[in-house]
Write a structure and sequence with these properties.
- This is Sugar kinase.
- One of its GO terms (molecular function) is kinase activity.
- There is one protein chain.
- The protein is of the alpha/beta class.
- It has 15 helices and 16 strands.
- It has three domains: about 100 residues, Orthogonal Bundle (Arc Repressor Mutant, subunit A); about 120 residues, ATPase, nucleotide binding domain (Nucleotidyltransferase, domain 5); about 160 residues, ATPase, nucleotide binding domain (Nucleotidyltransferase, domain 5, 2-Layer Sandwich).
- Strands 6-5-4-7-11 form a five-stranded mixed β-sheet, with helices on both faces.
- Strand 8 and strand 9 form a beta hairpin.
- The N terminus and C terminus are likely disordered.
Length: about 425
């Protein structure tokens, strides 16, 4: 959903006339966004374009303010190749992560750099949707105001621990938040339009997605599973979220809800789950289960208390986490059997406690079929609590990486000589 509906049409008209040029600019910008600073020679090698084409493309991106060039260092004979790098402060995505305990926000610049992070506890009131929406809007305003002059906001992207309908961002079910059929994106849009802040660009994207999906995208592109094409990501929180990358693509399913690993059955007749069923994986290994296992009351303690109990060597806590580990391994065994991932990334509390539960986890993971188990390497999340912010931001960069100059023109409200002459001055949805 976009703040202004006219912008997408405008961009389609403006960009339709030179698809090849647009695709070539996109290829170069994508390379720089994901690989960082590269020499012109690197770009020639990676894209297969000739030198003069690369020179002309990087110049156009530089004129748009998205990249900068500097002289390279001489290596061997001949002239040094110019180094081209993404300008992290040229554009930014405002990425958010709503969990059962907090709203986290980040301003992420081109190149995937996290330029600013804010975390605010919502202290046990995730059910209060209005409050959460207001927190996101306030943080978005604050972080946007801190962006350097001229940095263009591309998108606001919200990660939610739940099933989020696409493309309208309706949260169908988020058991850990107590949300059902919450029109999160529409509410956020209304909040941003009604507050007194300066208008965001009419063409700015506002969207929401699942925390497990964003997590697996982040770890696959920039984290512990970089370069691995088949990845399973599992995040321990109050609920358990997951995401799957198959052959380099995010697994979506028919409704975009694939990867709800928290609700696979691991113990028939087990603990009641927030979804209404019993014995779901998240009811057995989510944060509340971990707190009970270490001898704490989930109503009075935070997961960090359990993590520090383990860190200071409390025997009861360690034994409790061992128990949890075998239930974690049981769920993972099923998932590994189904998806045959090269890497399994554990995030959230499960990542934090993995070293303690490693033995019992692997003992029950052993029930997965041998050849499949042998290929799956278990690792802790590299991006940790930033994974959802980094992955969500990538969703916000998609349009720019598909059509760098057209997207920028639409966001800046510019119209080129082929355009309709309509200047987008304000939000008009
Ligand atoms: Zn459930």
């Amino acid at each position: 959903m976009r703040l202004g509906s006219g912008a997408a049409v405008l961009r389609a008209e403006a960009s339709g006339r030179d698809d090849v040029r647009r695709a070539n600019l996109a290829a170069v910008l994508r390379l720089l966004h994901f690989d960082g600073a590269s020499t012109r020679s690197d770009i020639v090698a990676a894209t297969g374009f000739n030198r003069s084409t690369v020179g002309s493309l990087t110049s156009e991106l530089e004129r748009a303010g998205l990249v900068r060039e500097r002289p390279g260092v001489v290596r061997g004979k001949g002239r040094p190749s110019n180094v081209v790098e993404p300008v992290s402060t040229s554009v930014h995505v405002l990425a958010f992560d709503v969990t059962a305990t907090e709203v986290a926000g980040a301003r992420v610049g081109l190149g995937g750099y996290i330029l600013q992070v804010r975390r605010r506890l919502h202290a046990g009131h995730p059910r209060d949707v209005g409050k959460v929406v207001a927190m996101i809007a306030t943080l978005a305003r604050e972080m946007d105001a801190r962006a350097p002059e001229g940095s263009v906001p591309l998108a606001i992207v919200v990660s939610v621990a739940g099933s989020v309908r696409q493309p309208d961002g309706l949260v169908r079910r988020a058991p850990a938040l107590g949300w059902a059929d919450v029109p999160l994106v529409a509410l956020l849009q209304a909040e941003l339009e009604s507050d007194q802040g300066p208008p965001f660009p009419g063409a700015m994207l506002i969207t929401a997605g699942n925390d497990g999906d964003f997590g697996v995208v982040a770890e696959h592109l920039r984290g512990a599973a970089r370069g691995i094409q088949d990845v399973l990501y599992v995040r321990g929180e109050r609920g358990v979220g997951g995401g799957v990358v198959v052959d380099g693509e995010l697994l979506k399913g028919v409704g975009g809800y694939a990867g709800e690993v928290g609700h696979i059955l691991v113990r028939p007749g087990g603990r009641p789950c927030a979804c209404g069923a019993k014995g779901c994986w998240e009811a057995e290994v989510g944060d509340d289960a971990i707190l009970r296992a270490v001898g704490r009351d989930p109503k009075e303690s935070e997961i960090d208390d359990a993590i520090s109990d383990v860190a200071i060597g409390r025997k009861r806590a360690i034994a409790g986490v061992h128990k949890i580990g075998s239930q974690v391994g049981l769920g993972l065994a099923s998932l590994v059997n189904i998806f045959n991932p090269g890497v399994v990334v554990l995030g959230g509390s499960l990542g934090a406690l993995y070293p303690t539960m490693e033995k019992t986890l692997h003992a029950s993971l052993a029930r997965a079929l041998g050849p499949i188990r042998e290929q799956a390497t278990l690792v802790r999340s590299e991006l940790g609590p930033d994974a959802q912010l980094v992955g969500g931001a990538e969703v916000g960069f998609v349009d720019l990486l598909d059509d760098p100059t057209g997207t920028l023109a639409a966001l800046r409200g510019e119209v080129d000589e082929q355009g309709s002459g309509v200047v987008l001055e304000s939000r008009s949805s």
